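Thought: the user wants the 3D structure for the chain below. I'll pass the sequence to the structure tool as-is, report back what it returns, then summarize two notable features.
Action: structure_tool
Action Input:
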Amino acid sequence: MEPTQLQDTSISPFVELDRQTWARLSNKMEQPLNVEDIERLRGLGDGLDLREVRDVYLPLSRLLYLYVTGAGATHQATMTFLGEKTRQTPFVIGVAGSVAVGKSTTARVLQEMLRRWPQTPDVQLITTDGFLYPNAELERRSLMERKGFPESYDRRALLRFVSAVKSGAPEVSAPVYSHLTYDILPDERNVVRSPQVLIVEGLNVLQPARTRSDGTVGLALSDFFDFSVFVDARTSDIEEWYISRFMKLRSGAFLDPASYFHRYSKLSDFEARATARRIWKSINEPNLKENVLPTRGRAQLVLRKSGDHSVTRMLLRKI
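Observation:
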């Protein structure tokens, strides 16, 4: 391979790469996904295609594979030092970003790509939506209009879950969230069984630890991450993606009478766009600016998207 040309970011904790430079880092690996895979993995409104997978996610899967195997070597060295033999705990990857930015697609693609590597066939994915308080509890706490904000999650349960996974527990379960009913499903659980890699996807997964009333600082979810990705874009672009997705849902999932948002299916185009913009401006944009964007600098890798949803720049934390 030719030497990689990196942008001079000597006063930044990140190395910045453009898409062309990043794409060369796949080391000429073959594209593992096909069109059917893309259709299955792509989120509503996302522009994911085979070229995006080849240029962006193939190099990223290679980088993550190197990190995972490197963690394995560190584990072996530690066991040699201690004179013990214990099972390596899962490698945990956090994926953060705004509503409608495409972080769920990123998480699914990474899961599929990492499964194709020879030493990481068992890659499991969990979303933090399952750790939202049930709607009844949100109503009790007057938080329904702040759903998705940090205070709307059962943070302790989420920390216990990831801590147990990272501690090597053979089986850990998480609540299941339904986007149809917009609520937790009380009788269902997602079970995670000793994965080699666990991907944790959600809005606030990179939030720093809270300061307690006595001045001490607790644990942050990111304390358990071995690597983290932040999916980024201009706020104005994300707003348009959110409105576009809302319009597609209005003639899709919202038509189901069981949908929490069924009432929106009867809106005119003008009313639907106005409603989507109001929801964005009153809930999602404030959450993005107050809570999500400030965590961007905590990620190991930032994927920067352009207005067409394609990733154009990557910022990788220096080591």
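Final Answer: Structure generated. The first helix runs from residue 19 to 23. The chain has one domain: 14-317.
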